[in-house]
Structures are given as C-alpha cells and as structure tokens.
C-alpha cells in the first residue's frame, strides 16, 4: 500500500472515530439531561476543538452532528442548520489553529447565532432570540470553551502520536 493510500485510510478512519465519539457523547448528554433545559450542554461539542490537531476532524464532526441530530429525533431544520452550525464552527476552529485559545470561539459563535433561530422557527420556543442566544452561548461556552479547551490541553502532549497529520 502506498503512502497516499495509507494517509487517506488514516484520515477516513479518524473522521469516522470522531463521528462515532460525537454520537456517543451526544447520547450521554441526553441520558443525563444535560442537552435540554434553558442552558444545554452537549458534551460532544467539546470535540469541536479537534480541528486544531487535524483537518480530518472536520468531516467527523459534521457527520457526527448530522447523525446525532437525526438519531435523537430532531426535526429536519434542526438537522440541517445544526449541522451547518457545526460545519462553520469546525472550519473556523481549523482556521484559528495557530491561536490555541481562540479555537473554541467559532463553534460557540456559530451555534449561538444559528441555534436560537432553529429553536424559534422549528420548535416554536417562545423565548426571545437574544435570550436564547445568551443561553445557547452559555451552554456552548461550557462545552467548547471549558471542556473543549481542557480536552485540547489534555491531548496536546500526545498530538504527534494520536494525530499523524498534526503538523500539516
């Protein structure tokens, strides 16, 4: 097997593992009631820092979010726009990979801007958009900002052994 094929298999496998982990962590959040209420904390959103290490995490996060939203019974607009928010956040995290402490900001902002509109129009949540932006932002701050940055620092010493393409 040549090096290019081996690298592609590695990236596809890594993306699949990220997607599977995202789904499992979303179900865990739901099981413990963390993903409902005024401030929702999806533990899986901590994974949105992974593009800091590798671009292979981007499709994994998107597929994981898509599957999570579909498997947990979300309505179609939530599946579409929630996945779009994750895509934008992951791309932004990758773009900011040279600035470690800024990596969690794109997923926090993309969800804070997009999700309240989904809640209003797909689920008829009566709260004001600014209030929902604040509550979604608080949940994302916990998930991405605190748990995510903790994950980033925990993985960073092992980046070259876990993420073979981390230098690219």
Please provide a brief summary of the model.
The chain has 168 residues and is an all-alpha fold. The protein has helices at 3-31, 57-71, 76-95, 105-123, 129-155, 159-162. The protein is built from 6 helices and no strands.
Overview of this protein structure:
The protein has helices spanning 3-31, 57-71, 76-95, 105-123, 129-155, 159-162. The chain is mostly helical. The mean pLDDT is 94.
Please give a handful of descriptors for the protein shown.
single chain; mainly alpha; 6 helices; globular
Low-confidence stretches: none
Write down the overall geometry. Answer: globular
Average pLDDT number: 94
Question: Helix segment count?
Answer: 6
Compute the number of strand runs: 0
Helix and strand layout, with pairings?
Blueprint (H helix, E strand, L loop, with lengths): L2 H29 L25 H15 L4 H20 L9 H19 L5 H27 L3 H4 L6
Helix pairs in contact: 1-2, 2-3, 3-4, 4-5
């Amino acid at each position: 097997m040549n090096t290019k094929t081996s690298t592609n298999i590695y990236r596809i496998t890594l993306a699949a593992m990220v997607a599977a982990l995202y789904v499992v962590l979303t179900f865990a959040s739901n099981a413990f009631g963390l993903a409902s209420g005024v401030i929702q904390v999806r533990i899986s959103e901590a994974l949105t820092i992974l593009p800091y290490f590798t671009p292979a995490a981007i499709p994994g996060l998107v597929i994981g979010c898509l599957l999570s939203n579909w498997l947990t019974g979300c309505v179609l607009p939530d599946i579409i726009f929630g996945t779009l928010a994750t895509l934008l956040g992951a791309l932004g995290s990758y773009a900011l990979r040279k600035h470690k402490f800024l990596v969690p900001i794109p997923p926090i902002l993309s969800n804070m801007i997009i999700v309240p509109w989904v809640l209003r129009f797909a689920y008829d949540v009566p709260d004001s958009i600014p209030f929902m932006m604040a509550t979604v932002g608080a949940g994302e701050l916990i998930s991405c900002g605190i748990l995510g940055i903790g994950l980033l620092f925990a993985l960073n010493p092992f980046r070259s052994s876990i993420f073979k393409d981390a230098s690219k």
